Amino acid sequence: MHLMPDVAEDTVTNTEPVYPTFGPPRSMSRKPRVDTVLADAVDIAREALEGYDGDIGEHLGTTADDERVVTHRFAAHVPGYRGWHFFVTLARAPRSKMVTISETGMLPGEGALLAPAWVPWRDRASAEERIRLDAIAAGEDPAKALEAAGFGPKAVEEVSVASTERPVTKDHTDKAKQARREAKRRRARQQAARRKQKKKSAGSNTKPDTES
């Protein structure tokens, strides 16, 4: 009796990827080559910067951004822009020798003078300033709020938006929280007193006149 082979055991599975006859796909992450036509167009790139203030310095080099896209860099001698440089991006169409100006501008280099990082107001403001503004928003006396927080009456004169560089200590933060809680309790008592006064006034207005 002829036995059929076990296909599941005898079949060999090929785990290698199978490509068409033209081979595996090419990687698209290769570095673009510097286009010679665009790289030689230094004069065109320099002329594109004539509208900028300051002096255009020496040519610093070229960078290939993409196929037929090249960026030229020039030194920038502009007051207030230490460490910056001009850039001009050039491009051309396939099979064309015509150079097109795509973009111009200035970019910071190493050691360039930059604006400081932005810091939120909550991190810049001192505890005195926050208490003062909270008291003003609640319609209360800032001097009393600061004095209740332990800063003293002179704090009102010293506090300003410009003087927010003083470090906020944990003690000041705790005092500020306590002052805000006390301000909330005072507002609650004032609101309760006003509601009580309104009820009392409404009751006196509806009371029948017993005098004859």
Automatic annotation (TrEMBL):
Specify the domain of life of the species encoding this protein.
Bacteria
Could you tell me where the Basic residues compositional bias lies?
A: 182-201
Region Disordered: what ranges? 1-27, 156-212
Q: Give the organism, scientific name.
A: Enteractinococcus coprophilus
- Protein name, entry field: DUF3027 family protein
Which Pfam families does UniProt cross-reference here?
DUF3027
Q: Give start-end positions of Polar residues composition bias.
A: 202-212
Q: Where is the composition biased (Basic and acidic residues)?
A: 167-181
Q: InterPro entries given for it? A: DUF3027
